[in-house]
Design goal:
Strand order of the largest sheet: 8-1-2-11-10-9
CATH superfamily of the largest domain: CheA-289, Domain 4
Radius of gyration: 26 Å
CATH topology of the largest domain: OB fold (Dihydrolipoamide Acetyltransferase, E2P)
Order of helices and strands: EEEEEHHHHHHEEEEHEEH
Low-confidence stretches: none
Mean pLDDT: 92
CATH class of the largest domain: Mainly Beta
Shape: elongated
Oligomer: single chain
CATH architecture of the largest domain: Beta Barrel
Number of helices: 8
Number of domains: 2
Structural class: alpha+beta
């Protein structure tokens, strides 16, 4: 049954937050902006990021992911950057350890299999799942230098066995100067690309002469919604979700995807 609350011809901004879709009335939308220079305000609720200055007004910023109990996009990006830096340092440590083992005539204790190191395991798990074509292209470029870095340990072991310690150290240095350097440059490019492709945006909304901003992942579309299968949140979730700022579920036309209709004023309550 169609909800009596909405004009079926009205337009809605469909927003994506992680893997969920939400809708706000287009009549409330003022602009879509890149989120920068958020000023934190003490004692706000945890999902309130602070304020920005937009078109001469102080605008309160709500982190929609936090409102839903999810990690913010900025936190996800920082976690990814930290992960890449850790995997880069793993390989710096790996090759330095190999050099020390040659100098001290010790057995090398770390893995020589590029699929078994932490980066290799992460790489094989992450690569098939990403839809970012530029990021995928950069990650594919790791395969050859990464393999050659790990293979050098096998070559060094043979040189050590034959007593060619100087040649072993020279080979390690060669890998450090070329393949490891290539990997480090790729790590930098991956970090920059990931940050660039996951910039935070906000949709600025107005109600009751007040401007506010919702931090979201993407504005998917501007369109009418289907109301034939309208359900309240209580009906849709069997009472498991208690969120008075979620009015109910409509559908995105043609895609038949559920979209949660938001009560914007209550989001900021």
């Amino acid at each position: 049954m169609m909800s009596p609350c909405f004009d079926p011809a009205s337009l809605w901004a469909v927003l994506r937050v992680q893997d969920e879709f939400f809708a706000v009335p287009c009549e409330q939308v003022q602009s879509i902006i890149a989120l920068t220079n958020v000023t934190p305000i003490p004692h706000l609720k945890k999902y309130m990021r602070g304020v920005i200055y937009h078109q001469g007004q102080v605008v309160h910023v709500l982190e929609m992911r936090n409102r839903l109990g999810l990690k913010s996009l900025s936190a996800e990006v920082n976690d990814f950057i930290d992960l890449m830096e850790a995997r880069e340092q793993d390989h710096v440590y790996w090759i330095d350890t190999l050099s020390e083992c040659v100098q001290e005539r010790k057995k090398f204790p770390l893995t020589t299999d590029p699929h078994r190191c932490k980066f290799g395991e992460w790489y094989e798990h992450f690569l098939p799942k990403t839809d970012d074509s530029l990021l995928k292209s950069l990650l594919n470029q790791f395969e050859e230098p990464h393999r050659k870095v790990h293979e050098v340990a096998i070559q060094v072991e043979q040189l050590q066995h034959e007593g060619h310690y100087i040649e072993a150290l020279e080979l390690i240095q060669e890998r450090k100067d070329h393949e490891l350097r290539t990997m480090r440059n790729l790590f930098d490019n991956v970090k920059q690309t990931y940050r660039k492709n996951n910039r935070e945006i906000a949709i600025v909304l107005q109600f009751s002469n007040r401007q506010v901003a919702l931090v979201i992942d993407e504005v998917v579309a501007i369109e009418t919604l289907l109301w034939n299968n309208w359900r309240t949140i209580d009906e849709a979730t069997g009472g498991q979700v208690r969120a008075d700022y979620m009015l109910g579920l409509a559908e995105i036309p043609e895609k038949e995807l559920p979209v949660v209709v938001l009560d914007v004023p209550k989001c900021f309550a």
